[in-house]
């Protein structure tokens, strides 16, 4: 009939006078698919008009498809130095129907991300993000890991200072995030330092390591932190048993809390 598909059907009388005036022409209509060519039927019948088929069809007007909104961006392929991320959309708003056109354009959008320059050294956390002070991270050099051969406390302090920290808190070798570490190259080895300054260090970009020897490092921030006085101690013994004399209070001292030597102040009440 030129329609696309059935919306609903039932048996019964819709226009009784009209239906009763007409002959029943077809019965036993059986179809294997939605194509009339697959159907069989009988001209003979054993029906009455209250068994007439009442049917509603949907008009087959072409309906072009439309794009949905984009989904969320994927995680950036690089933490610095420029990477890519993608997001998807689908041709479902609406879905093309009845021969309507598909959506034009691409279903995937690609965007740049983390385009800032990589530092030579940085500490990567468990999920690859840069960690702050006092937190252990995977030591990265030019976004590759650093092997622990010849690595010492001097090496750790020099690298922490090179990254803008005050000093190293701790270091060890091992695995913090196996998937992240094994996805990277080992870019530095044999970091040997004579002092806590990076200019005193020698290193090699050749290595004979595996990632179980990657350096994991925690650095202390160089942010100034003020000290605080303790409570006074007990009075000392009096210098005389009688007479007008004075007694001295025990010293109180400034207890440094992660402060540098220059910040330690001693005093008397």
What's the SSE blueprint?
Elements: E1 3-11, H1 16-21, E2 27-31, E3 39-42, E4 53-59, E5 83-88, E6 108-113, E7 121-124, E8 136-141, E9 144-146, H2 153-162, E10 167-173, H3 178-182, E11 186-193, E12 201-204, E13 215-220, E14 228-229, E15 252-255, E16 266-267
Parallel strand pairs: 9-11
Antiparallel strand pairs: 1-4, 2-3, 5-6, 7-8, 8-9, 8-13, 10-13, 11-12, 14-15, 15-16
Overview of the structural elements:
The chain has 269 residues and is mainly β. The chain is 8% helix and 31% strand. It has 3 helices and 16 strands. The chain has helices at residues 16-21, 153-162, 178-182, and strands spanning 3-11, 27-31, 39-42, 53-59, 83-88, 108-113, 121-124, 136-141, 144-146, 167-173, 186-193, 201-204, 215-220, 228-229, 252-255, 266-267. The strands form 5 sheets. Strands 7, 8, 9, 10, 11, 12 and 13 form a 7-stranded mixed β-sheet that branches. A 3-stranded antiparallel β-sheet has the order 14-15-16, with no helix packed on it. The protein has a two-stranded antiparallel sheet with strand order 1-4. The longest helix has 10 residues, at 153-162. It is elongated, with a radius of gyration of 41 Å. The N and C termini lie far apart (106 Å).
């Amino acid at each position: 009939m030129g329609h696309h598909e059935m919306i609903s059907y039932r048996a019964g009388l819709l226009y009784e006078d009209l239906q009763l005036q007409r002959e029943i022409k077809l019965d036993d209509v059986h179809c294997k698919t939605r194509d009339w060519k697959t159907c069989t039927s009988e001209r003979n019948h054993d029906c009455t008009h209250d068994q007439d088929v009442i049917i509603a069809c949907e008009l087959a007007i072409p309906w072009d498809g439309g794009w949905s909104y984009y989904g969320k961006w994927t995680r950036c392929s690089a933490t610095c130095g420029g990477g890519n991320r993608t997001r998807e959309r689908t041709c479902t708003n609406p879905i093309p129907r009845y021969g309507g056109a598909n959506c034009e354009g691409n279903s995937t959008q690609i965007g740049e991300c983390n385009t800032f320059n990589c530092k030579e050294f940085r500490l990567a956390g468990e999920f690859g993000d840069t960690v702050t002070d006092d937190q252990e991270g995977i030591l990265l050099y030019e976004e590759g890991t650093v092997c622990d051969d010849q690595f010492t406390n001097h090496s750790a302090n020099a690298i922490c200072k090179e990254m803008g920290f005050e000093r190293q808190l701790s270091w060890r070798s091992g695995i913090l995030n196996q998937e992240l570490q094994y996805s990277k190259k080992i870019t530095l080895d044999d970091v040997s330092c004579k002092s806590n300054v990076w200019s005193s260090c020698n290193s090699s970009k050749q290595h004979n390591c595996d990632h179980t020897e990657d350096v994991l490092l925690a650095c202390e921030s160089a942010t100034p932190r003020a000290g605080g006085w303790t409570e006074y101690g007990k009075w000392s013994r009096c210098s005389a048993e009688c007479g007008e004399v004075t007694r001295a209070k025990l010293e109180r001292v400034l207890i440094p809390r992660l402060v540098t030597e220059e910040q330690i102040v001693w005093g008397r009440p």
